[in-house]
Structure formats: structure tokens, C-alpha cells
Amino acid sequence: MTDIILASKSKHRQALLNNAGVTFTAQSADIDEREVEQPLIEAGLGGEDVAEVLAIAKATEVSKSNVDAYVIGCDQTLSLEGELLHKVANMAEAQRRLLQLSDKKHQLNAAVSLVRNGEVIWSHVEVATITMRKLDPGFIGRHLSDAGETILSSVGAYQIEGLGVQLFEKVEGDYFSIIGLPVLPLLAELRKLGLVE
């Protein structure tokens, strides 16, 4: 059987693949994401392109030490009014992020790629547009206290699959992509390659 490796330490992405019945191992990519994305941002590329390049970079890095394995790379970026936002470092920053997103639309750009022996076989990007309801600082503080520090692993400082669903007015896009991995297009490609039934 051909090895499939997920180039991610994300428990959410691992759970999505496990739930889909994909047999894989997980191995984190050793890349500096900010270093990879800086020239892309300077060149004026948007969140979709940045997410795709980062997904490919992660898969390519892991592919180097795993001959003949199919490596899945993924990344997610958040775009707000043309600005690319990154993960917050602590709960104070999370509070500021939710205030920044309050009563606005933002885009989550979820990219996935497949790399084998350093060669990109396939890549795909899904974009979801999310409208956050108007939030007051008191609610945000209570929400963050209830949600806990797990939200620090999310670029938006929320997790839609949990308490974060209370933050939104409207969600347009694929649920799995919002969690961080466009599972349906990935499964279609894995079937095409004969890697899953």
C-alpha cells in the first residue's frame, strides 16, 4: 500500500481525514511560514495564493524525506478587507482579533496540495466568506473564557465547530474548508489516484 502522509500537526485536520476513513500518518513540516509568505505579500499576492504556496511548501518539505509517499500539504489564511491576518499569540490578541472581525465579512482561504517525490501532483483552494455578527467586548470576553486557549490554534481566534458558531451571522462556503482542509476535493483526487476507494 502506498503511504499517505499529512504534513500537519493539526488535530482538526487529522480528525477530518480519520473520519473520512483515510489511512495516513502525520508529520509536521519544518518551514518558516512567515519567511515563505513575505516575498509573496511583497509581490502583491492575495490570501488564496499565499495559502496555496504554503500548502505546497509544507508538502514538498515533508516529501523530501519520504520517498514515493503521497504527501498532503494544507494551509489556511484569513483575509480581511484585503489584509492578510495571522494567528494570535495570546488571549488578549484574540480579544482584539474578534473585535477587529466584528460586524464584518472576512475570507478563509483553505488550500490543499499533493506532492510526491518533490513534484506537485495537484493543488486546490477553497474560499469561504464569513460574516461575523456585531460583538460587544463583554460578550467576547465571556466567549473566550468559555472557549479556552484552543482558539489560539485558529487564524480567526475562533473554532466554528465549537462555541465559535455563536459568533457568526452568515457562512458562505464549504464547512470542511472552514475547519482547515478541503476534504471533498482531496478525496476526489485520492480516488482518481487509486489511493482510496
Structural class: alpha/beta
What name is given to the CATH topology?
Maf protein
Following the backbone from N to C, one meets helices and strands in this order, namely EHEHHEEHEEHEHH
Arithmetic mean pLDDT: 93
Give the overall form. globular
Question: Helical region count?
Answer: 7
Uncertain regions: pLDDT < 50 for 5+ in a row?
none
Helix content: 25-40%
Number of domains: 1
Number of strands: 7
What is the CATH class? Answer: Alpha Beta
Q: Report, as a whole number of angstroms, the end-to-end distance.
A: 13 Å
Give the percentage of residues in beta strands. 25-35%
Rg computed from alpha carbons, rounded to a whole number of angstroms: 17 Å
Please tell me the CATH architecture by its name. Alpha-Beta Complex
Largest sheet: 7 strands, mixed
